[in-house]
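User: Teach me something about this protein's shape.
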Amino acid sequence: MSDVYTQTTTTSWFGRLGGAFKGILFGIILVVASVPLLWWNEGRAIDRTHTLEAGQRAVVSIDADHRDPANDGQLVHTGGLATTDEMLRDPTFGVSVNALRLQRRVEMYQWKEEKHSSTSRGSGGSETTETTYRYDMGWSDHWIDSGHFQYAAGHQNPAQMPFNSESYQASNVRLGDFRLGPSFVAQIGPYSTYRPTDASDLPTGFEPYGNGYYRGTPQSPQIGDVRVGFEVVEPTTVSVIGKQVEDGIEVARMPKGTIALLDLGRVDADTMFAKALDANAALTWGLRFAGILVMWIGLKLILNPLRVLVDIVPFIGRIVGAGTSLIAGLIAFSLGFLTIAAAWIFYRPLLAGGLIAATLVLVTVGVFKVRRSNPAPTATQKPL
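Assistant: First, the predicted structure itself:
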């Protein structure tokens, strides 16, 4: 059963105008912050590409079951079954299991707040906001501070999580004759559910339930009930690219970055590098979009007072609002791509110079062809 509350507030035109002018400072901060974000992203993308391309040229594929000391210090690619003889143990709940990774997942039954707002503008520039607060009970793997709820009375959560979620990782994972470094082990997945069988060493109040342990009333959960489950990563076949260091495979440190690639199953080196390059390209475009979006939001805040000024007439305010959003978008895209282009010139001057020269040649040829296809009109003698 949900508890629902509705709150209505009205802000005058003068109040909105004051808030809009205060937002200019925050907008300037966002615009200024977006520029170094875009600049840094281009440098990061280029360094990562250089690192992966250099690694692809240098990598040596080896047999995991036959270590060759001649490859010490080299970037190597190999594959096989990742195994361990370690028993991972959760000391709090007494769970022990032979696995590459062990994860304890703790959830507590708590109140959750959902907030939804709708805004309407009235004549004279005022703005009315109707906010609905909805409170439901549910499971969460992190503590929810009910002290920050709008309507905290009757919706109190416990002061903290009784136990936290934890992860454990085997320190001696073997891949044939090699020991995998922790950076590689951390990439192995996915997790699968593990059902513990020993309930002799549980914290007070916990009982076996389902695939884990429960404290409370599972048939009718109450606020503060806790359930605990476990997941493991079992031995599996992997392919890795890293630096051979005696009998181990560790993170390879290159001049402009690091390489520690892992894929599930048997995957050749070229495919692994291709996937890493694709992931880098996806991240680059995602950060470009994020940087331009931050810039657009900042510019909208800077231009927002113009919309509020004319919002005395809502119809005109909507038109100006759409116009300022469009202008902010155009400026953000232009300034964003100028920043990206400037970063390319800084990080890749030869390539950027070549692209600029090619663009100028294309523009010149295009203008020349347009002029030739549209000859200047010649003077003709008018009949007498």
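Now, about its shape. Residues 45 and 284 are 6 Å apart (CA to CA). The longest strand covers residues 101-121. If you'd like, I can walk through any region in more detail.
User: That's plenty for now, thanks!
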